[in-house]
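Colleagues,

For the teaching module next term, I've prepared a clean inverse folding example: a structure given as tokens, and then the sequence designed for it. I'd like students to try predicting residues themselves before seeing the answer, so please don't circulate the second half yet.
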């Protein structure tokens, strides 16, 4: 399958942040695999949005506050910064999420202006890459479909936490059931020079 990138498309790069990468407190084992495909395709999009987990220390989803996760992506810290492997010159907009201490912030649409910002730009289809497949990529792509966007997840540009071994495949199935499509970066940009 091949896709032609249109002016009405946006690339949403979910949480390419240091704390989710090897060495970080919530490291995604294969996290580094996302950057090659993302940097290769981003220049072809008129609109590229990067999202960032941006939590307060009193977030109830931290283990210290009775939740499931270690401290990660505390607002303004180096761990919340985008990896230097992400070529930022192609990113047009940054959306911070997970700011509210009582909601998980997995979806980039939760408590943000992302849906209206994309609509104002005339975006109808969203390609989704980033971290992590089983949380923020899953919820962002499902909510994109709920908001009425066509949502296409780029399977070579995502990676899973896999707290349980089946989490990745369960997440892909949940996305499929919600109407999310799947492609690879090679279905969008196939010339090696790009
Ligand atoms: C994420 C767990 C907690 C993610 C964020 O970016 O997928 N996962 N916060
Ligand atoms: Zn988080």
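(Answer key — instructors only)
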């Amino acid at each position: 399958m091949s896709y032609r990138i249109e002016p009405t498309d946006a690339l949403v790069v979910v949480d390419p942040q240091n704390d989710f990468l090897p060495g970080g407190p919530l490291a995604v084992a294969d996290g580094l695999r996302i950057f090659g495909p993302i940097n290769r395709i981003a220049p072809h999009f008129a609109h590229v949005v990067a999202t960032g987990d941006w939590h307060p220390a009193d977030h109830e989803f931290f283990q210290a506050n009775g939740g499931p996760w270690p401290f990660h992506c505390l607002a303004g810290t180096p761990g919340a910064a985008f990896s230097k492997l992400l070529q930022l010159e192609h990113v047009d907009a940054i959306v911070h999420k997970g700011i509210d201490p009582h909601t998980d912030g997995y979806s980039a649409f939760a408590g943000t202006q992302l849906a209206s910002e994309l609509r104002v730009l005339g975006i109808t289809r969203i390609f989704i890459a980033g971290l992590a497949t089983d949380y923020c990529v899953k919820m962002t792509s499902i909510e994109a479909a709920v908001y009425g966007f066509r949502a296409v997840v780029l399977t070579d540009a995502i990676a899973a936490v896999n707290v349980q071994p089946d989490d990745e495949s369960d997440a892909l199935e949940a996305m499929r059931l919600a109407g999310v499509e799947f492609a690879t970066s090679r279905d969008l940009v196939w010339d090696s020079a790009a």
